[in-house]
């Protein structure tokens, strides 16, 4: 995707700078676009934990490069296993992280230590290329849904899409998941408008999704998280499209906290609720998402404080709760499959069910 006309991916390697790994510091957006240079697996792990890099597919890709960085220092068997375990433990909910690390281990374990570092960089690059291609395919399959809405209502009526959190190109290697169909629809000349949930407490919608859409010229409006149901009641939402950090084999969907409430409102108002994901986000080992998916509990300070820019242009944090007030911060919730209209994957669309997923991915079941 492009920023001010210049194409970027969300992670890249500089071979002329010690094979360092580069990412955008997402905690600085939307007020500053800063590139981080990562030179060790510890720096990669810190970037993932602090959400300087975030988004389930991108976390997996960056963690793969983190393992490559580790192998430049020590490529023996024990170091390979220890560093892989450390990176896999940085965040518990997104399944892409574990998938990427397991894929790297499967590829690297049979190799002699002297060959592992170079092979790790090559495998991480393949993971990135595959993610970009998968997300582009998700965009094409999701675009068909938006074209169908345009066909029903006519070309002059705006298609109103609601999304929650950030599932755009900054959360993946390129294109994004939930935003990929929107970008393609906009580029194809369809009249689209996006309702962007602010996504408290970290405000990924207000900060990241709005920044992405604005950079690409897509019309959008940021709304408070609690406004979506009201808009649905008044016919101002044609479709909800969200991303996900983990989908169970039965079609349950774990996504940013607040997604479940949007799905309830969508069902009550007969608004289609679609979830976009690459196959790497499917966890075939889990059936009941509510009981089995671990939900990350993040620091209370993300709830009690909020970051913003003051009139003088300084970015700062301010406290919004009384001193001594406790805060809980579950980072994700699970939307049961019964509330999901369908899943958009790189191989097409399907019902949110085991049978639906197996119809597209029989080899993974």
From TrEMBL:
Belongs to the EIF-2B alpha/beta/delta subunits family. MtnA subfamily. The keyword Glycosyltransferase does not apply. Its EC number is 5.3.1.23. GO terms for molecular function: S-methyl-5-thioribose-1-phosphate isomerase activity. The record marks 165 as: Transition state stabilizer. The active site is at 245 (proton donor). It comes from Acetobacter vaccinii. Keywords: Amino-acid biosynthesis, Isomerase, Methionine biosynthesis. Pathway: Amino-acid biosynthesis; L-methionine biosynthesis via salvage pathway; L-methionine from S-methyl-5-thio-alpha-D-ribose 1-phosphate: step 1/6. NCBIfam families: eIF-2B_rel (TIGR00524), PRK05720.1 (NF004326), salvage_mtnA (TIGR00512). GO terms for biological process: L-methionine salvage from methylthioadenosine. Catalyzes the interconversion of methylthioribose-1-phosphate (MTR-1-P) into methylthioribulose-1-phosphate (MTRu-1-P). Also catalyzes the interconversion of 5-deoxyribose 1-phosphate and 5-deoxyribulose 1-phosphate. Part of a bifunctional DHAP-shunt salvage pathway for SAM by-products. It is an enzyme of class 5 (isomerase). SUPFAM superfamilies: NagB/RpiA/CoA transferase-like. HAMAP family: Salvage_MtnA (MF_01678). InterPro entries: IF-2B-related, IF-M1Pi, IF_2B-like_C, Initiation_fac_2B_a/b/d, M1Pi_N, NagB/RpiA_transferase-like. Substrate binds at residues 54-56, 91, 204, 255-256. It comes from the Bacteria. The gene is mtnA. This is Methylthioribose-1-phosphate isomerase. It catalyses: 5-(methylsulfanyl)-alpha-D-ribose 1-phosphate = 5-(methylsulfanyl)-D-ribulose 1-phosphate; 5-deoxy-alpha-D-ribose 1-phosphate = 5-deoxy-D-ribulose 1-phosphate.
């Amino acid at each position: 995707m492009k920023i001010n006309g210049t194409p970027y991916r969300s992670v890249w390697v500089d071979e002329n700078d010690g094979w360092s790994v580069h990412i955008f510091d997402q905690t600085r957006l939307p007020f500053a676009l800063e590139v981080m240079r990562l030179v060790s697996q510890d720096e990669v792990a810190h970037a993932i934990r602090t959400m300087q890099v975030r988004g389930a597919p991108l976390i997996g890709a960056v963690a793969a490069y983190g393992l490559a960085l580790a192998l430049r220092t020590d490529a023996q068997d024990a170091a390979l296993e220890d560093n892989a375990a450390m990176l896999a433990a940085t965040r518990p909910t997104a399944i892409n992280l574990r998938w990427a690390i397991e894929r790297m281990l499967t590829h690297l374990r049979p190799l002699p230590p002297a060959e592992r570092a170079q092979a790790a960089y090559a495998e991480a690059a393949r993971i990135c290329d595959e993610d970009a291609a998968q997300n582009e395919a998700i965009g094409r399959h999701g675009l068909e849904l938006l074209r169908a809405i345009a066909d029903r209502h006519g070309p002059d009526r705006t298609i109103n899409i609601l999304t929650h959190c950030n599932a755009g190109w900054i959360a993946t290697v390129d294109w994004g998941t939930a935003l990929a169909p929107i970008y393609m629809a906009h580029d194809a000349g369809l009249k689209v408008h996006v309702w962007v949930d602010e996504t408290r407490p970290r405000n990924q919608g207000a900060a990241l999704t709005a920044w992405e859409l604005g950079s690409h010229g897509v019309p959008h409006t940021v709304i408070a998280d609690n406004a979506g149901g009201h808009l649905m009641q008044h016919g101002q939402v044609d479709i909800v499209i969200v991303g996900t950090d983990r989908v169970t084999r039965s079609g349950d969907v774990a996504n940013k906290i607040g997604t479940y409430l949007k799905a309830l409102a969508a069902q009550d108002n007969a608004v289609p609720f679609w979830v976009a994901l690459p196959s790497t986000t499917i966890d075939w080992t889990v059936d009941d998402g509510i009981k089995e998916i671990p939900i990350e509990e993040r620091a209370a300070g993300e709830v009690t404080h909020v970051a913003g820019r003051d009139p003088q242009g300084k970015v700062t944090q301010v406290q919004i709760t009384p001193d001594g007030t406790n805060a809980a911060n579950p980072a994700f919730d699970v939307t049961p499959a019964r509330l999901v209209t369908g899943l958009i994957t790189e191989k097409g669309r399907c019902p949110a069910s085991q049978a639906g997923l197996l119809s597209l991915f029989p080899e993974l079941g």
